[in-house]
Amino acid sequence: MNFSFTKNLPGLEKVQGYWRRQGFVKFVFVALFGVFSYQAISISNANHAGESIQDRARNQANKIQTSTARRGDILDRHGNILASSRLLKRVILDPMLIHPDFIPGLAKALNMDEDKLSTLLAKKRVIKSRYLPIKKNITLTDPILKNLIAFKKQRVKICIEKMIDAEISLIDKALNALHLQSVKTEKIKQPRCSKKRIGQGVVLKQDTQRYYPKSASMAPLLGRVNAENKGGSGIEAEFESVLAGVDGKSHLNFSNTGKKAYFNPQLKTHLSHGQDIELTIDTDIQYHAYAAIKKSVLKHEANSGSAIILSANGEILAMVNYPADDPNDKSLYNPSHYRNRVLSDKVEPGSTMKPFTMLLALDQGKISAEDDELIDVSKSIGHLKTNQEVRKYGDAITVKKILQKSHNLGTVNVSERLKKEDMYNTWYKLGFSHPLGLIPSIENSGSLRHYSSWGMMDKRALSFGYGPMNTNLAQLARAYLVFANQGAMPNLKLVKNMVYDEEKVQIFKPESTDKIAELLDSVASNDGSGYWSNIKGYNIAGKTGTAEMSINGAYDKNGAQRTFFAGFVPVKTPKYIMLVRLDHPKKCFSKGKVKLKRNCQGSNSAAIVFNETMRHVLTNDKSIRISLK
Predict the structure, then answer these.
(1) Fewer Cβ close by (within 10 Å): the C or N end of the chain?
(2) CA gap 212, 75 in Å, rounded
(3) What pLDDT, in 10s, does the model give residues 446-461?
């Protein structure tokens, strides 16, 4: 007979499996206690590179915050902007955070082709890159910016399939954990869908861009900024310390003293925005001078061209060079196209120096420059030989004719009456070989050898712009200011509100400059060498110049020349003084003739630039009356 004790013990069937369940509960409790204990110990003793978690938190709360200074603007004399820093935005994508479902809307917001955007993102994901600059130089009014801001606020339903364990009962999970049984779970796919914002996947960064509204016409003068937003050349580089300003820096220190915790900002550097610089340049005059130089260089197939226009008090109204690049186009950079040849190139000025030879001779009473005075040109002097071309004006000519026809032998004949010491002292007072102090980092002051080292040929050559001197175009223009200042010469000025030495150097007598100015009026006439400079209705005075180019220390055997024109208007009390230079023009025409002229000279090249520029300037300046002459 079999007996069952379970049937005889009341309630025992209710507690079957009791010990198993009690063991599971104990196991869970011990496991949780162990996890919490481990975390507590880890946090209190966490060490990262030798520092505690408390130190790491403190260090993360201490940082330097930088406020970027705004670069100052460059303005012309009327307040027109020549260079300014525009606030822009750029768009950076994180390819790892951008789901394919975002791409159609993102492409539309960016105004991009959807396939192109998708390809770019895919390439970055392959290399696990989290940085993709996709758009730059976005202005604050660009529709793209508005589209992106709106798109980032939208929610897009994103479904992601994940492999998860199939559900098993709680009891089976516990038994598996206690190793009392082994129930294998299956992996199944399950879609997880949620509405997400594009959020961190698209970042808008603030940016600045230096903008030059006048494009290439100002490039060699202003220069441009480099990739670090620092001046690379020209005004931008010369006045970097003024334009750049100083970034503001503050030290954010997290303080936890007493009952309060707060950030304590400590100022390290004051934020100081860059200052604006106002130039003496007149944007309108600069534009017309640049257009005329560019046209002339292309028409005459010259290597380059440059010009400078001054007011009577020495303020620079225009300083132009060509070739020149647009500084707004960062894909273009040719260093020679940012070369300010007006200041950086030293040249022999040729016949543009003849008026000063005549001024000195007139001042010293060596000539009278009257119509009844004749200068003998019948005999050769040094290497200057009398020939049919030289003598076509006769064996004796007036000073007026010497200037009008740019007669070398006649000029040398006058210079023979002067002492070389006096010529040296006069040229020195005119500023040759002296720095102008306009943009010192690029200026070439030229040279003027001391008269003690001259031979007779040096003095003769000096009288018509060769020999022991060379100069830059700005220095030559400054010398011509004597005609606008009764024989005195002021300093040149490029930046307004700067302290300049206003003292003028008296070089010639007022009556001498008035007399020679009248004679130079004949140069800018149909009978003079500067016939192309003549402007109907206005009294123009000027002087042409042609000089052989020195290459590697020797004059070019192929006849490469520089051509010049120096002019001022009106003849009495001049308001504008302009100097023009063309390097190696190869294709010139005579006035009134279609036939190509073989030789290019100041008369048929540089003088044209003066004419085309001054016609625009005088048309817009109602203060200069039209002559009835």
Answers:
(1) N
(2) 11
(3) 999 999 999 989 999 9
| Cβ atoms of residues 225 and 212 within 8 Å | no
Residues 6+ apart with CB under 8 A from 119: none
Which H or E run contains 269?
Answer: strand 260-269
Q: What is the pTM of this model?
A: 0.77
> What pairing do the DSSP bridges indicate for beta strands 550-551 and 554-555?
antiparallel
- In terms of pLDDT, which residue wins out, 48 or 431? 431
**Average pLDDT score over residue span 329-353:** 94
Q: Reply yes or no on whether 351 is catalytic.
A: yes
The whole-number pLDDT of residue 16 equals 56
Q: Calculate what percentage of the chain has a pLDDT beyond 90.
A: 56
43-57, 146-160, 393-407, 609-623: which has the minimum mean pLDDT? 43-57
Mean pLDDT of 54-80: 76
Phi and psi at 7, nearest 5°, equal: -75, -25
Which residues are CB-contacts of 415 (< 8 A; sequence separation ≥ 6)?
357, 361, 423, 459, 460, 462, 463
Q: How far apart are CA 356 and CA 139, in angstroms?
A: 55
**What span, in angstroms and rounded, lies between the C-alpha atoms of 361 and 215?**
46
pLDDT mean over 544-571: 86
How far apart, in Å, are the Cα atoms of 115 and each of 100, 103, 106, 107, 118? Answer: 11, 9, 12, 9, 5
State the SS3 of 54-121.
HHHHHHHCCEEEEECCCCCCEECCCCCEEEEEEEEEEEEECHHHCCHHHHHHHHHHHCCCHHHHHHHH
Of the candidates 233, 306, 351, 445, the residue annotated as catalytic is 351
Q: Using CA atoms, how far apart are residues 511 and 523, in angstroms rounded to an integer?
A: 19
3-state helix, strand, coil in the chain (%, to 5): 35, 25, 40
As a whole number of angstroms, the distance between CA 152 and CA 154 comes to 6
Mean pLDDT of 425-448: 96
Q: What is the pLDDT of residue 7?
A: 45
Of the CA atoms within 13 Å of residue 244, those in its CB half-sphere come to: 17
Distance, CA of 281 to CA of 496 (rounded, Å): 9
Mean pLDDT (the chain) is 85
* Separation CA 479–CA 513 (nearest Å): 12
Who contacts 439 (Cβ-Cβ below 8 Å, separation ≥6)?
234, 235, 238, 340, 343, 494
Scored b (16 or more CB within 10 A) or e, 131-162 reads: ebeebeebeeeeebbebbeebbeeebeeeeee
Cβ contact 317:308 at 8 Å = no
Distance between CA atoms of residues 561 and 587, nearest Å: 12
The 3-class secondary structure across 453-464, one letter per residue, is HCCHHHHHHHHC
First to last CA, the chain: 156
The letter for the amino acid at 188 is I
Contacts of 118 (CB under 8 A, 6+ apart): 100, 103, 107
- The confidence score (pLDDT) of residue 199 equals 65
